[in-house]
Amino acid sequence: MKIIVLVKQVPGTDSVKLDPVTGVMVRTGKDTIINPLDENALAEAIRIKNTYPDVKITAVSMGPISAMKAIKEAIAMGADDGVLVSGREFAGSDTIATAKVIAAAIKKTGDFDMILCGERATDGETGQTAAMIAHYLGVPAQTYVSALEVLEDGVIVKRTVESGFERVQVTFPVLVSVNKDISDTGFPTLDGKLKAKKVDVPMLGNAELGFDKSELGLTGSPTRVVKIFSPKLSRDTIMVKANATMQPIDELLSFLVQKDVL
Amino acid sequence: MSMYVNCSIAEAKNLSEFKGVFILGEQRDGKIQAVTFELLTWGRGIADDLGCELACVLLGDEIENLDEVILRGADKVFFIQDPIFKNFLTQPYSNAITRLVNEEKPEVIIAGATTTGRTVMPLVAAKTNTGLTADCTELTIDPDTKLLLQTRPAIGGNIMATIKTPDTRPQMATVRPRSAKQSPVDTSRTGQIIVKNYAGATTMTVEKFLEFIIDTTQAVSIEEADVIIAGGKGMKNAAGFKLVEELADLMGAAVGATRDAVELGWSTYPHQIGLSGKTVSPKLIIAMGIAGKIQFLAGMQTSDVIVAINKDPEAQIFKVADFGIVGDVFEVVPMLIETVKKMKAKA
Ligand SMILES: Cc1cc2nc3c(=O)[nH]c(=O)nc-3n(C[C@H](O)[C@H](O)[C@H](O)COP(=O)(O)OP(=O)(O)OC[C@H]3O[C@@H](n4cnc5c(N)ncnc54)[C@H](O)[C@@H]3O)c2cc1C
Ligand SMILES: Cc1cc2nc3c(=O)[nH]c(=O)nc-3n(C[C@H](O)[C@H](O)[C@H](O)COP(=O)(O)OP(=O)(O)OC[C@H]3O[C@@H](n4cnc5c(N)ncnc54)[C@H](O)[C@@H]3O)c2cc1C
């Protein structure tokens, strides 16, 4: 069985710069991590590899050349190999343009049974890319998955939805996006680290993927960021100190009544 | 092995062909879900600004009270009816909606940023080759260009971005649940219910729905709750966290938790608020024993009224709070519970 795990490299801290004109994220390449939910997806792939014979895991990332670090980390944690999709023409892609390119890169790596990825990345946070990738590959997408059971010819997924869970059975090939409940994240192993050093991770650019330039980057993106601004964060806080009397509680309750939320 | 019906409307360059606003309603067990009525509020406003019709799209087998959608603001209801639509399955849902969109050519489509909306809308956007903006908190029509301006938080709520879809149609967005009030019933309203029966390829799928399991701990799901009582590591242990549940129960509120509280096993992941959990925007949230780290704030800072109880006067949670009590949760919360009990007894 071949599993593709998508790993997006995201900023590790809260300090992200945006180009005020184009609204495109500017990254320094320093202090980056694998998107946390992608690590959960990777851990689930590794769990499957440890349970069933002949499972191969390929980590795929699209991003600047520095995203190679994310793939090497994935290999250190247990992926067998990886593919980096990188090129200046891809910069500024929205989810449609991103998904087209990632899907094309996955196709290049040959047949697969399952794609595992996080339900949402912590930077762009759209949670849209995975389903779009599934569309461009012509496979079904199962989203918000918190448990997965591997069958002979497919999987049964448990989706965490509003007010409960849905169980759905689907045949391979399939894309599954996961939430945190799927698997505890793992750690790099010594063997893995050695392997990560040795493995040659191929890079795919548009020379290999062959898109028309109009389909890529900002030009290939139907959405346009037209304005970026900071949300109003701080509020005028009424502060009271607890003092063993009922007074702070009464003040709170009359505040809530006045705000019409009780 | 693709079962998808690939019907791109990219060829239809004539943008003016696209008219009208669609909202994507939701049902479970044939009952129309509250998010549908919130979407009617969004959709009605936009349709009025554009001077066009508002249609609600619903998929299902049998659906109760379809009329209510009209009384609450829709001019038309497209009811796509087939037993396969009883439960959400990505292939038949996205195929059917795409087919309707290609037939009707709406200018704008809005869905809830629910697990369903966030799954089916990307598929429909990709199939129709147009843009989609995620999780919007504000939608307006640009008075000059008549384009839909879609505003959304990103990067853990640290920035807001306004996005438009200038060159393709429909313009598609998901909106955060609870970011609009439910549209009220107006019994004088009239409209049309159009039933669509799509058979064949549209309803075919490799997916099989097995079952829906209600999560009883989510009696009130946190994304839909008006009031959330949330607890963090300051609740000390599982027994302490029970105070959070007790107050929530008393107030008919949902229980929220920080990542630390979930990891310690005091609550479960469906209750986690924050960057790697749920994003909530209730009318009232009471944060108890919560530090207010940025990853937590990312999931709740757009709430209407924020109350914080923390023994550390410097705790960051107070920066986003409207009302803060500096004190020990084990003193303050039991008093609060007693007072609410008394209020309820009187009422
Ligand atoms: C402020 C801001 C707002 C934006 N709003 C929108 C918008 O509303 N609509 C829109 O279409 N675009 C939007 N974008 C662009 C969007 O963020 C990018 O297209 C980005 O590539 C998709 O990232 P995401 O964080 O949204 O991914 P998500 O869709 O949240 O990611 C889900 C999963 O897909 C996989 N994945 C995603 N990207 C990659 C990758 N590069 N490599 C490997 N795996 C990946 C990962 O497994 C990830 O866990 C916005 C960008 C910014 C800066
Ligand atoms: C990538 C990433 C994603 C993350 N995602 C999330 C997320 O989705 N959600 C999330 O919550 N966190 C998330 N975190 C973790 C986050 O950074 C914090 O660690 C977490 O929110 C802290 O939880 P807490 O406030 O319960 O605990 P603490 O930080 O330990 O705070 C406890 C608070 O309780 C107060 N307190 C203690 N005792 C009492 C008492 N007796 N009475 C009153 N007050 C008391 C203390 O003063 C303190 O302020 C994420 C972190 C990372 C790196």
TrEMBL record, chain A:
Gene Ontology MF terms: electron transfer activity
Domain of life: Bacteria
Family annotation (InterPro entries): ETF_a/b_N, ETF_b, ETF_beta_N, Rossmann-like_a/b/a_fold
Name by which UniProt lists this protein: Electron transfer flavoprotein small subunit
Domain Electron transfer flavoprotein alpha/beta-subunit N-terminal intervals: 22-213
Pfam family name, one: ETF
TrEMBL record, chain B:
Keyword ATP-binding: no
UniProt: FAD binding residues: T258, R259, Q272, I273, G274, L275, S276, N310
Span of domain Electron transfer flavoprotein alpha/beta-subunit N-terminal: 21-216
GO biological process terms, semicolon-separated: fatty acid beta-oxidation using acyl-CoA dehydrogenase
GO molecular function: electron transfer activity; flavin adenine dinucleotide binding
Domain of life of the source: Bacteria
Cofactor binding summary note: Binds 1 FAD per dimer.
Record keywords, A-Z: FAD, Flavoprotein
Cell cycle keyword on record: no
Cofactor(s) this protein requires: FAD
Family statement drawn from the similarity comment of this UniProt entry: Belongs to the ETF alpha-subunit/FixB family.
Protein name (Swiss-Prot/TrEMBL): Electron transfer flavoprotein alpha subunit apoprotein
Organism: Pelosinus propionicus DSM 13327
Lineage: Bacteria, Bacillati, Bacillota, Negativicutes, Selenomonadales
